[in-house]
Protein backbone atom coordinates (compact mmCIF):
# COMPACT_ATOMS: atom_id res chain seq x y z
CA UNK A 1 0.00 0.00 0.00
CA UNK A 2 1.23 3.49 -0.83
CA UNK A 3 3.14 5.30 1.88
CA UNK A 4 4.54 8.72 2.59
CA UNK A 5 7.57 9.31 4.78
CA UNK A 6 7.43 5.66 5.81
CA UNK A 7 3.82 5.99 6.98
CA UNK A 8 1.24 3.73 5.38
CA UNK A 9 -1.61 5.82 3.99
CA UNK A 10 -4.10 2.98 4.43
CA UNK A 11 -4.43 0.74 7.48
CA UNK A 12 -5.72 -2.27 5.59
CA UNK A 13 -8.60 -4.43 6.71
CA UNK A 14 -8.28 -8.14 7.58
CA UNK A 15 -11.61 -9.38 6.25
CA UNK A 16 -12.94 -12.41 8.11
CA UNK A 17 -16.65 -13.16 7.50
CA UNK A 18 -16.82 -15.53 10.49
CA UNK A 19 -15.83 -12.73 12.84
CA UNK A 20 -18.52 -10.53 11.30
CA UNK A 21 -21.19 -13.21 11.72
CA UNK A 22 -20.31 -13.61 15.38
CA UNK A 23 -20.45 -9.86 15.88
CA UNK A 24 -23.84 -9.68 14.16
CA UNK A 25 -25.29 -12.20 16.63
CA UNK A 26 -24.08 -10.00 19.48
CA UNK A 27 -25.38 -6.80 17.84
CA UNK A 28 -28.92 -8.15 17.41
CA UNK A 29 -29.07 -8.79 21.15
CA UNK A 30 -27.58 -5.36 21.85
CA UNK A 31 -30.11 -3.57 19.64
CA UNK A 32 -33.00 -5.28 21.42
CA UNK A 33 -31.56 -4.18 24.74
CA UNK A 34 -30.76 -0.55 23.89
CA UNK A 35 -33.52 0.43 21.41
CA UNK A 36 -37.28 0.04 21.34
CA UNK A 37 -37.30 -0.83 17.62
CA UNK A 38 -35.26 -0.75 14.43
CA UNK A 39 -37.49 0.36 11.56
CA UNK A 40 -37.05 0.96 7.83
CA UNK A 41 -39.24 3.44 5.93
CA UNK A 42 -41.82 2.07 3.53
CA UNK A 43 -41.64 5.22 1.41
CA UNK A 44 -38.03 4.61 0.46
CA UNK A 45 -36.33 1.94 -1.58
CA UNK A 46 -37.40 -1.60 -0.53
CA UNK A 47 -34.67 -2.89 1.73
CA UNK A 48 -34.13 -6.33 0.24
CA UNK A 49 -33.86 -4.91 -3.29
CA UNK A 50 -31.00 -2.67 -2.19
CA UNK A 51 -28.79 -5.53 -1.16
CA UNK A 52 -29.58 -8.48 -3.42
CA UNK A 53 -30.58 -7.45 -6.91
CA UNK A 54 -27.43 -5.72 -8.20
CA UNK A 55 -24.63 -7.95 -9.48
CA UNK A 56 -21.90 -5.31 -9.29
CA UNK A 57 -20.50 -3.35 -6.35
CA UNK A 58 -22.93 -1.64 -4.00
CA UNK A 59 -21.88 1.75 -2.64
CA UNK A 60 -23.83 2.58 0.52
CA UNK A 61 -23.57 6.20 1.67
CA UNK A 62 -24.93 7.28 5.03
CA UNK A 63 -25.14 10.31 7.22
CA UNK A 64 -22.98 10.02 10.34
CA UNK A 65 -24.69 11.22 13.50
CA UNK A 66 -24.00 8.50 16.06
CA UNK A 67 -21.53 6.07 17.56
CA UNK A 68 -24.05 3.38 16.64
CA UNK A 69 -23.71 3.83 12.87
CA UNK A 70 -20.95 1.26 12.11
CA UNK A 71 -22.48 -1.24 14.54
CA UNK A 72 -25.85 -0.90 12.86
CA UNK A 73 -24.29 -1.32 9.41
CA UNK A 74 -22.63 -4.56 10.47
CA UNK A 75 -26.03 -5.83 11.58
CA UNK A 76 -27.79 -4.78 8.36
CA UNK A 77 -25.24 -6.61 6.20
CA UNK A 78 -26.17 -9.83 8.00
CA UNK A 79 -29.89 -9.20 7.54
CA UNK A 80 -29.92 -8.45 3.80
CA UNK A 81 -26.67 -9.38 2.07
CA UNK A 82 -24.49 -11.81 4.06
CA UNK A 83 -22.88 -12.94 0.79
CA UNK A 84 -21.35 -9.52 0.07
CA UNK A 85 -17.79 -8.74 1.11
CA UNK A 86 -17.74 -5.63 3.33
CA UNK A 87 -15.37 -2.73 2.76
CA UNK A 88 -15.72 0.39 4.89
CA UNK A 89 -13.57 3.40 5.77
CA UNK A 90 -12.91 4.64 9.29
CA UNK A 91 -10.69 7.24 10.92
CA UNK A 92 -7.34 5.51 11.33
CA UNK A 93 -6.86 6.70 14.92
CA UNK A 94 -10.22 5.25 15.95
CA UNK A 95 -9.60 2.00 14.08
CA UNK A 96 -6.32 1.53 15.93
CA UNK A 97 -8.39 1.61 19.15
CA UNK A 98 -11.15 -0.72 17.90
CA UNK A 99 -9.04 -3.18 15.94
CA UNK A 100 -11.74 -5.86 15.78
CA UNK A 101 -13.45 -3.81 13.06
CA UNK A 102 -10.53 -4.56 10.73
CA UNK A 103 -11.69 -8.19 10.63
CA UNK A 104 -15.12 -6.95 9.56
CA UNK A 105 -13.80 -5.23 6.43
CA UNK A 106 -12.98 -1.80 7.88
CA UNK A 107 -9.81 -0.04 6.72
CA UNK A 108 -8.29 3.09 8.25
CA UNK A 109 -7.48 6.46 6.68
CA UNK A 110 -6.50 9.90 7.85
CA UNK A 111 -9.47 12.01 6.65
CA UNK A 112 -7.45 15.23 6.98
CA UNK A 113 -4.50 14.07 4.86
CA UNK A 114 -5.02 14.95 1.16
CA UNK A 115 -2.80 12.04 0.15
CA UNK A 116 -5.30 9.63 1.69
CA UNK A 117 -7.91 10.34 -0.98
CA UNK A 118 -6.19 8.71 -3.99
CA UNK A 119 -4.91 5.94 -1.73
CA UNK A 120 -8.44 5.18 -0.53
CA UNK A 121 -9.84 5.21 -4.06
CA UNK A 122 -7.11 2.82 -5.23
CA UNK A 123 -7.68 0.51 -2.27
CA UNK A 124 -11.44 0.31 -2.87
CA UNK A 125 -10.99 -0.14 -6.62
CA UNK A 126 -8.47 -2.97 -6.22
CA UNK A 127 -10.70 -4.78 -3.74
CA UNK A 128 -13.78 -4.47 -5.94
CA UNK A 129 -11.84 -5.74 -8.97
CA UNK A 130 -11.06 -8.88 -6.96
CA UNK A 131 -14.57 -9.18 -5.52
CA UNK A 132 -17.10 -7.42 -7.78
CA UNK A 133 -20.08 -7.90 -5.40
CA UNK A 134 -18.43 -5.97 -2.60
CA UNK A 135 -20.48 -3.78 -0.27
CA UNK A 136 -18.62 -0.47 0.10
CA UNK A 137 -19.91 1.63 3.02
CA UNK A 138 -18.82 5.26 3.42
CA UNK A 139 -19.80 8.31 5.51
CA UNK A 140 -19.12 11.18 3.08
CA UNK A 141 -19.57 13.89 5.72
CA UNK A 142 -16.30 12.69 7.22
CA UNK A 143 -17.26 13.52 10.81
CA UNK A 144 -20.09 13.26 13.30
CA UNK A 145 -22.87 15.68 12.31
CA UNK A 146 -26.31 16.48 13.64
CA UNK A 147 -29.12 15.22 11.40
CA UNK A 148 -30.44 18.80 11.11
CA UNK A 149 -27.21 20.10 9.54
CA UNK A 150 -27.18 20.61 5.75
CA UNK A 151 -25.27 17.97 3.82
CA UNK A 152 -21.67 18.97 3.22
CA UNK A 153 -19.73 16.07 1.74
CA UNK A 154 -16.03 15.47 1.42
CA UNK A 155 -14.97 14.34 -2.08
CA UNK A 156 -13.91 10.78 -1.17
CA UNK A 157 -17.23 9.04 -1.85
CA UNK A 158 -17.69 10.88 -5.16
CA UNK A 159 -14.17 9.91 -6.25
CA UNK A 160 -14.87 6.26 -5.37
CA UNK A 161 -18.18 6.28 -7.25
CA UNK A 162 -16.53 7.79 -10.36
CA UNK A 163 -13.85 5.08 -10.32
CA UNK A 164 -15.99 1.96 -9.80
CA UNK A 165 -17.46 0.22 -12.86
CA UNK A 166 -21.10 -0.91 -12.74
CA UNK A 167 -21.59 0.65 -9.31
CA UNK A 168 -25.00 1.09 -7.71
CA UNK A 169 -25.02 3.97 -5.22
CA UNK A 170 -27.61 4.04 -2.43
CA UNK A 171 -28.22 6.69 0.21
CA UNK A 172 -29.06 5.51 3.73
CA UNK A 173 -30.46 8.08 6.16
CA UNK A 174 -30.40 7.28 9.88
CA UNK A 175 -32.12 8.87 12.86
CA UNK A 176 -32.31 7.83 16.51
CA UNK A 177 -35.36 9.67 17.89
CA UNK A 178 -37.32 9.14 21.08
CA UNK A 179 -41.01 8.50 20.44
CA UNK A 180 -43.30 7.05 23.14
CA UNK A 181 -40.99 4.65 24.94
CA UNK A 182 -38.13 5.13 27.39
CA UNK A 183 -35.80 3.71 24.72
CA UNK A 184 -35.08 5.44 21.40
CA UNK A 185 -36.02 4.26 17.93
CA UNK A 186 -33.68 3.52 15.04
CA UNK A 187 -35.18 4.83 11.80
CA UNK A 188 -33.75 3.99 8.37
CA UNK A 189 -34.61 5.18 4.89
CA UNK A 190 -32.97 4.05 1.64
CA UNK A 191 -33.07 5.77 -1.73
CA UNK A 192 -31.28 5.16 -5.02
CA UNK A 193 -28.71 7.68 -6.19
CA UNK A 194 -29.06 7.91 -9.95
CA UNK A 195 -25.74 8.01 -11.77
CA UNK A 196 -24.88 11.35 -13.39
CA UNK A 197 -24.69 11.52 -17.16
CA UNK A 198 -20.95 12.14 -16.94
CA UNK A 199 -19.19 9.96 -14.39
CA UNK A 200 -16.75 12.45 -12.90
CA UNK A 201 -15.92 13.23 -9.28
CA UNK A 202 -17.50 16.69 -9.57
CA UNK A 203 -20.71 15.32 -11.09
CA UNK A 204 -20.98 12.57 -8.48
CA UNK A 205 -20.35 15.13 -5.74
CA UNK A 206 -23.35 17.18 -6.81
CA UNK A 207 -25.52 14.10 -7.28
CA UNK A 208 -24.62 12.53 -3.93
CA UNK A 209 -25.15 15.77 -2.03
CA UNK A 210 -28.60 16.31 -3.52
CA UNK A 211 -29.71 12.70 -3.03
CA UNK A 212 -28.50 12.45 0.57
CA UNK A 213 -30.13 15.78 1.48
CA UNK A 214 -33.45 14.76 -0.07
CA UNK A 215 -33.35 11.41 1.72
CA UNK A 216 -32.53 13.03 5.07
CA UNK A 217 -35.39 15.51 4.65
CA UNK A 218 -37.86 12.73 3.84
CA UNK A 219 -36.83 10.68 6.88
CA UNK A 220 -36.98 13.77 9.11
CA UNK A 221 -40.62 14.32 8.11
CA UNK A 222 -41.48 10.72 8.96
CA UNK A 223 -39.61 10.93 12.24
CA UNK A 224 -41.59 14.04 13.22
CA UNK A 225 -44.86 12.29 12.31
CA UNK A 226 -44.15 9.51 14.87
CA UNK A 227 -46.21 6.99 12.91
CA UNK A 228 -44.83 3.42 13.09
CA UNK A 229 -47.24 2.38 10.33
CA UNK A 230 -44.98 4.22 7.88
CA UNK A 231 -42.19 1.74 8.67
CA UNK A 232 -41.41 -1.96 8.55
CA UNK A 233 -40.01 -3.18 11.86
CA UNK A 234 -36.81 -5.23 11.73
CA UNK A 235 -36.09 -5.59 15.46
CA UNK A 236 -38.29 -5.02 18.51
CA UNK A 237 -41.39 -2.88 18.32
CA UNK A 238 -43.48 -4.71 20.93
CA UNK A 239 -45.28 -3.19 23.90
CA UNK A 240 -43.60 -0.17 25.47
CA UNK A 241 -41.75 -0.79 28.72
CA UNK A 242 -41.65 1.20 31.96
CA UNK A 243 -40.40 -1.13 34.69
CA UNK A 244 -40.62 -4.95 34.71
CA UNK A 245 -42.71 -5.09 37.91
CA UNK A 246 -44.94 -2.14 37.04
CA UNK A 247 -45.39 -3.46 33.49
CA UNK A 248 -46.56 -6.78 34.91
CA UNK A 249 -49.06 -4.99 37.19
CA UNK A 250 -50.45 -2.97 34.28
CA UNK A 251 -50.95 -6.11 32.23
CA UNK A 252 -52.64 -7.94 35.15
CA UNK A 253 -55.06 -5.04 35.57
CA UNK A 254 -55.86 -4.91 31.86
CA UNK A 255 -53.92 -1.76 31.07
CA UNK A 256 -51.21 -1.33 28.45
CA UNK A 257 -47.73 0.01 29.10
CA UNK A 258 -47.54 2.35 26.10
CA UNK A 259 -48.34 6.05 26.18
CA UNK A 260 -51.50 6.45 24.09
CA UNK A 261 -51.87 9.66 22.11
CA UNK A 262 -54.21 8.25 19.49
CA UNK A 263 -57.23 10.31 20.58
CA UNK A 264 -55.58 13.67 21.11
CA UNK A 265 -56.20 14.94 17.61
CA UNK A 266 -59.97 14.48 18.13
CA UNK A 267 -60.38 16.20 21.50
CA UNK A 268 -60.76 19.70 20.18
CA UNK A 269 -58.69 22.77 20.94
CA UNK A 270 -60.22 23.92 24.18
CA UNK A 271 -57.70 22.24 26.47
CA UNK A 272 -55.20 23.98 28.69
CA UNK A 273 -52.29 22.85 26.54
General description of the model:
The protein is an alpha/beta fold and 273 residues long. The protein has a single domain, classed as Glycerol-3-phosphate (1)-acyltransferase (3-Layer(aba) Sandwich). It contains 8 helices and 10 strands. The chain has helices spanning 17-34, 47-52, 69-80, 92-97, 116-130, 156-163, 201-225, 244-252; strands spanning 3-4, 7-8, 37-41, 58-62, 86-91, 106-109, 135-138, 168-175, 185-193, 231-236. A hairpin with a 2-residue loop joins strand 1 (3-4) and strand 2 (7-8). The chain is globular, with a radius of gyration of 21 Å. Residues 240-247 and 265-273 have low confidence and may be disordered.
CATH architecture descriptor text: 3-Layer(aba) Sandwich
Strand content: 15-25%
Count of structural domains? 1
CATH class, named: Alpha Beta
Counting copies of identical and different chains, the oligomeric state is: single chain
Q: State Rg.
A: 21 Å
| Helix-strand sequence | EEHEHEHEHEHEHEEHEH
Number of helices: 8
Q: Helix/strand-derived class?
A: alpha/beta
Distance between the termini: 63 Å
- Gross morphology is globular
Any idea of the CATH topology?
Answer: Glycerol-3-phosphate (1)-acyltransferase
Low-confidence residue ranges: 240-247, 265-273
Across the major sheet, the strand order is 6-5-7-4-8-9-3-10
Instruction: Kindly state the number of beta strands.
Output: 10
- Major sheet: 8 strands, mixed
